[in-house]
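Title: Comparing notes on inverse folding

I've been comparing how different people in this forum approach sequence design from structure. To keep things fair, I'm posting one structure and asking everyone to reply with a full sequence. Here's the target:
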């Protein structure tokens, strides 16, 4: 019935419980889950889960806060290989993050340049493979990261679609990116009393322009706020948004599932087969001889540097919710390799 379009099933906090997590999701009416890759290893593990469970699909990508952790030479080729997997439904999450300080040994300008270079390389990969992208963006304060992100993605309009996940911006920004053919996606933040702008966007967005997600294990919706999030809880977000829109959860599910069908390619020929199971054991990716091997951009091309500028911070309580998200791990990463 519902699709959780953004979950981190490979997160350490869900490890060892996947069968129970998926059972609770099914009981809550969540029939499809997209697990999100953040680096090569989590992308591989996500695809392995997708091979094992028919209701799980995966994205592959290098998150902006991981760009200094992958060996420069081969991560893009690894993603290219994985993008051919029949259960890889998008590239992500990718984007820009100006929230976290530069890693030790890096200066800010080089770190931002590296983020941008990796982001652009993965946009090229997505376009070459006919995939859409899951976009992460986060400012520490102001909108410098958001503005930079829009600049990077602008040339790709018409070549791919992005979903701006964990939507936090005002309606004016939502209307602009939706007008360019992109999507926005709502987490449990839409249910928080102190995020009225997000709630307003969730009430106003036209059918076909938005999807639902948990971003689990982070950002659990009311009434689960503060707990570890999991795909079953997308139901609470859906119930709340449906109420705001004056429709049933069933109607909202049908609307957002149709959007997910289109965005992830489930509506196309042979893509909606949820009973797909691998011929090979987990971690054996198809050689995909029928798929092209598009040339990808050289990662040594000179990056365009972006300078951050101060502006108004996020509302404190939203900021607090996000802070909790990053506090889940001491290194303030989405999740660490285990
Ligand atoms: Zn995420």
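Reply #1:
Here's my take.
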């Amino acid at each position: 019935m519902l699709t959780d379009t953004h979950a981190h099933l490979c997160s350490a906090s869900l490890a060892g419980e996947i069968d129970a997590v998926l059972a609770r999701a099914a009981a809550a009416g969540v029939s499809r889950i997209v697990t999100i890759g953040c680096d090569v290893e989590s992308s591989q593990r996500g695809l392995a889960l997708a091979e094992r469970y028919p209701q799980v699909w995966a994205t592959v990508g290098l998150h902006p806060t991981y760009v200094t952790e992958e060996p420069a030479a081969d991560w893009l080729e690894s993603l290219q290989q994985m993008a051919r997997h029949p259960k890889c439904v998008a590239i992500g999450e990718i984007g820009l993050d100006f929230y976290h300080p530069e890693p030790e040994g890096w200066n800010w300008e080089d770190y931002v340049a590296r983020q941008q270079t990796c982001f652009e390389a993965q946009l090229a990969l997505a376009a070459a493979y006919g995939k859409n992208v899951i976009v992460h963006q986060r400012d520490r304060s102001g909108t410098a990261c958001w503005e930079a992100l829009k600049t990077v993605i602008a040339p790709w309009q018409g070549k791919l679609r992005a979903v701006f996940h964990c939507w936090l911006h005002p309606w004016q920004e939502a209307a602009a990116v939706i007008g360019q053919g992109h999507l926005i996606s709502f987490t449990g933040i839409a249910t928080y009393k102190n995020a009225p702008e997000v709630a307003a966007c969730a009430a106003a967005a036209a059918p076909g322009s938005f999807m639902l997600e948990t971003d689990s294990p982070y950002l659990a919706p009311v009434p689960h706020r503060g707990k570890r999030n999991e795909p079953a809880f997308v139901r609470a977000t859906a119930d709340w948004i449906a109420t705001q829109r004056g429709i049933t959860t069933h109607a909202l599910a049908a609307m957002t599932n149709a959007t997910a069908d289109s965005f992830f390619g489930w509506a196309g020929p042979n893509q909606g087969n949820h009973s797909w199971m691998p011929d090979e054991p987990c971690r054996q990716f198809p050689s995909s001889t029928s798929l092209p091997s598009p040339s990808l951009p050289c990662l040594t091309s000179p990056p365009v540097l972006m300078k951050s500028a101060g502006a108004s911070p996020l509302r404190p309580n939203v900021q607090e919710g996000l802070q909790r998200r990053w506090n889940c791990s001491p290194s303030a990463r989405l999740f660490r390799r285990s």
